[in-house]
Design brief:
UDP-N-acetylmuramoyl-L-alanine:D-glutamate ligase, single chain, binds adenosine-5'-triphosphate, Protein-Tyrosine Phosphatase, Chain A, six-stranded mixed β-sheet, binds 2,6-diaminopimelic acid, ten-stranded mixed β-sheet, binds magnesium ion, UDP-N-acetylmuramoyl-L-alanyl-D-glutamate--2,6-diaminopimelate ligase, ATP-binding, Udp-n-acetylmuramoylalanyl-d-glutamate--2,6- Diaminopimelate Ligase, Chain: A, domain 1, binds ligand UAG, ligase, Mur_ligase_cen, alpha/beta
């Protein structure tokens, strides 16, 4: 594709463009290099490296010079996303974007499952990577950079995916990673504290999420909103200001309304109302909050055109996402579960949700990520203290920070907690404590397969470490 075709601008000379990237190290011959100002570095300082690697053109802020043709744009991140959308032009017929602090991954997976059950070729993009029956790809971010995102959507579409549910993180929205995606549906789970290291204020965090509804949702699109989520009313207002229809779900929902939710050992007995009819469903999901995510997923599928009755009939058949309230081992009439709660709200929600599954005590293990929002740490500790019988504080991806000081910050919220830095030892100690009917909930890493210390990632999987610890304990007990 010629540069002028890609950029919709008359440019001389007008080179052939064979690829796009914002990373000078990934430039090959014929690539357009987007020089983006970032948090750590200024992409413009890498233009010489991009030129050396054979770049054919540059995208940059006004005032940046190069011997190559330059596309000038005051918003180069947005422009890169638009160029990527043109370079990789195929998108599934229906794309739903899901934003919110907690529940995006689960909701995206549920929506993709519902579409599949209704006979569509569906997929998801998010924290678990790009997934579908016909195409899979591991991804480094929840919302990948625009080049990776559009390349992935193009490949999924060529493979046959027609319905896509994708997570849109606040970082992704603030950095225009998903601009250029044609969103037929925009969905909202909830907004509570996270990422205040990146967003200067909570308002800025909300506004970033709001972009999905104000800027990215198509003008013929529909918003699907979990009315039980913190911040839901404000999102309804964003849709109303654009005159866009909403599908409202949850206990406080208008279109898919939860009437009752009874957690039992292996799932949730739900009663709901949709289109004037009452339905019952018993999906194998652990944790009452998953009902909110399941209903929001139903709302997304309805917003995209499915009949409410057809969607309700399939709700019983959806399964939890890996690492989200996942049951990993049974022991002494109780069990061990793994969950991805890594915010104060999620820690409280997950621990409250496990209670009906624990005839005995609830034991919680948690840490907090390094190089991330510090202010959430004591709040996560306090949420654990308020909702568990025993709390153990351990490490969770300390990254470049001192692990002991991260633990100390969590311990401010739960001073009586037991502190064991080594995550494997903490899990073994938690398992050793389990008495008749007790439940151990291991929080924070969910599906993650590694522990990041400095810039090294050591293989570590909560579920398999917990299974081994349970097997060892069983052997000891004979
Ligand atoms: C804070 C943040 O989100 N940063 C992201 C951002 O980095 P940046 O633009 O600030 O990059 P920078 O290092 O300052 O460099 C500036 C520019 O110079 C370029 N560069 C740099 C070095 C070089 O040799 N050559 C070169 O061209 C870089 O590619 C970049 O374009 O753009 C980069 C490229 O897309 C991302 O990899 C990077 O993600 C960092 C690593 C990250 O950890 N992000 C996390 C927090 C994140 O995005 N998380 C959300 C989900 C969170 C959640 O919901 O829980 C996600 O969607 O995954
Ligand atoms: N509707 C909800 N309300 C409150 N907490 C929730 C909700 N859904 C999930 N959680 C909690 O948040 C954790 C993360 O869930 P999930 O992975 O679905 O969220 P996410 O928004 O994708 O997170 P991330 O931003 O890291 O990608 C879960 O393991 C659970 O503890
Ligand atoms: N997407 C989230 C994941 C957090 C998971 C937790 N294990 C951590 O490392 O903090 C983030 O990057 O903030
Ligand atoms: Mg996610």
């Amino acid at each position: 594709m010629r540069l002028s075709e890609l950029a919709y601008e008359t440019i001389e000379p007008d080179p052939q463009i064979d690829g796009l990237t914002a990373d000078s190290r990934a430039v090959s011959r014929g690539f357009l290099f987007a020089a983006l100002p970032g948090v750590q570095a200024d992409g413009a300082s890498y233009i010489p490296q991009a030129e050396e690697n054979g770049a054919a053109a540059i995208l940059a802020l006004p005032g940046v010079t190069s011997k190559l043709p330059v596309i000038v744009d005051a918003e180069p991140r947005r422009r890169l996303a638009q160029l990527a959308a043109r370079f990789y032009p195929r998108q599934p017929e229906v794309v739903a974007g899901i934003t919110g602090t907690n529940g995006k991954t689960s909701t995206a997976r549920f929506a993709a499952q519902l579409w599949t059950l209704l006979g569509c070729e569906a997929g998801s993009i998010g924290t678990l990577g790009a997934q579908s029956r016909v195409y899979e790809r591991a991804l480094a971010h929840t919302t990948p950079d625009p080049v990776t995102l559009h390349e992935t959507m193009d490949a999924m579409t060529r493979a046959g995916v027609t319905h896509l549910a994708m997570e849109v993180s606040s970082h992704g929205l603030a950095q225009h990673r998903a601009d250029g995606v044609h969103f037929r549906v925009a969905a909202f789970t909830n907004i509570t504290q996270d990422h205040l290291d990146y967003h200067p204020t909570f308002e800025d965090y909300f506004n970033a999420k709001g972009r999905l509804f104000t800027d990215l949702l198509a003008s013929n699109g529909t918003a699907a909103i979990n009315m039980d989520g913190e911040g839901a009313e404000a999102v309804v207002e964003l849709a109303r200001l654009r005159g866009l229809p909403t599908v409202q779900t949850g206990w406080n929902g208008r279109d898919v309304k939860l009437l009752s939710c009874e957690p039992h050992m292996s799932g949730l007995a739900l009663e709901l109302e949709c289109g004037g009819y009452v339905y019952r469903a018993d999906p194998p999901l652990i944790g009452a909050f998953q009902a909110e995510n399941a209903l929001l997923a139903a709302g997304i599928v309805i917003a995209a055109g499915a009949k409410g009755a057809d969607v309700m009939m399939q709700l019983a058949n959806i399964e939890g996402a890996p690492g989200r309230m996942e049951f990993v081992a049974e022991i002494a009439g109780g069990g061990v579960y793994v969950d991805y709660a890594h915010t104060p709200d999620a820690v409280g929600t997950a621990l409250k949700a496990i209670r009906p599954h624990a005839p005995g005590r609830v034991i919680a293990i948690l840490g907090a990520g390094g190089d991330r929002d510090r202010t959430k740490r004591p709040l996560m500790g306090a949420a654990a203290k308020a909702n568990a019988d025993i709390v153990m504080v351990t490490d969770d991806n300390p990254r470049t920070e001192d692990p002991a000081s991260i633990r100390a910050e969590i311990l401010k919220g739960c001073p009586d907690a037991k502190e064991i830095g080594d995550r494997g030892e903490a899990i073994a100690a938690g398992v050793a404590m389990l008495d008749e009917g007790d439940v151990l909930l291991i929080l924070g890493k969910g599906h993650e397969a590694g522990q990041q210390v400095g810039d090294q990632v050591f293989p570590f999987d909560d579920a398999s470490v917990a299974r081994d610890a349970v097997a060892d304990r069983m052997k000891e007990l004979g």
